[in-house]
Amino acid sequence: MKRNAVVIVAVIIAVGLMVWAGVLNYRHRQQQEAAVKQLQSMTAQPATPSDGSSDAGADGSSAGFGGFMEHPLQGKMAPNFTLKDTEGRNVSLADYKGKAVIVDFWATWCAPCKIEIPWLEQFNKQYAGQGLQILGVSEDNLNMDNKVELAKEKQDIADKAKDLKINYPVLIDDANVSTPYGGVDGLPTTFFIDRSGKVVASTVGLVSRDEIEANIKKALGSGGQS
Amino acid sequence: MKRFAWAALVLLLAASFAAAQKLPWQKSERPQDVRYLFPEQVSVPAGKDAVVELHFRINSGMHINSHTPSEKGLIPTSLILPENSGVKLDKVDFPSGSEYSLRAMPSMKLSVYTGDFVVRAHIRAISGQHLVQAALRYQACDVNACYPPRKAPVVVDVIAK
Fold first, then answer.
1. What is the pTM assigned to this prediction?
2. For A63, A187, A206, B70, which has the most beta carbons within 10 A of its beta carbon?
3. How many domains in chain B?
């Protein structure tokens, strides 16, 4: 009798798991289809530039995927992380509570990142006094199985950050912190977090300097303590 | 006991089924941006130098760094041949890249491949038939974003007589 009960419970759990996975899969497919439809309708009627500026993104077509799609983290609390910077110090997102934070995922091999970074350096100087903190997170591949190789790779990231004269902390993602941020794929991917820790904007790919500045102002202006 | 085994099996199957589903927070792997086109099979003289032309196609709207990127730190396209495949790769002739600039920085001249391109592999094969599983390592970008380096499989059946 007891055995029968165990078997019945196991079968119910199994069927439940299958149904649950099926429902999630169905919902996910629906979301993807809706996103594609939304993207198609947007590309059919591209945004036209208002000021004719020549920056990337000014013509609408180069605004990047993030220019059209709302990230699932939008309006949600930014996932916390703790990583080491290029100097070996622990840096945690939670350390910057009360500040507006830009989390910029980049890599040393990413050409558009090299265009965006100098803009971030300027914004760092310009808005630090108002409570802006920028964190660069390197998504360079790391050989975690080989300590010597890993040390070399980390040093390489530090050297490249120095070459680029990055004036904000550069963190080395050796813990896949990009995963809770949606599994960052295209670089640069930038998240704008307000003073309360909520993601207020995000961009994938190189967008215009103006768009970045507008997102900074949005992050600085919301979440209180401005 | 038999019933417990069945229950365990059903649970295992259900767990595998659930794990195989794409969950909302899981991203699908990006498709390859570069595809190997042909040849699938080549005949070369055994023990002698031979040149095999490998044809590739890059997805529309994408570009990859050439073998000699103009900017320091960018990842060059390269051909990787496994050791002990019976085929030795002596040299590879890559095409020269085309000049490409991002709109936001016209002064940054990148050396890239787009569309179709051909790589000439200088090989030497020992006598016999060898299924060579090589790879083209590349790092792709579109007009706004760059994607992590990947390896496109290059499988060629090399018959050396």
1. 0.75
2. A206
3. 1
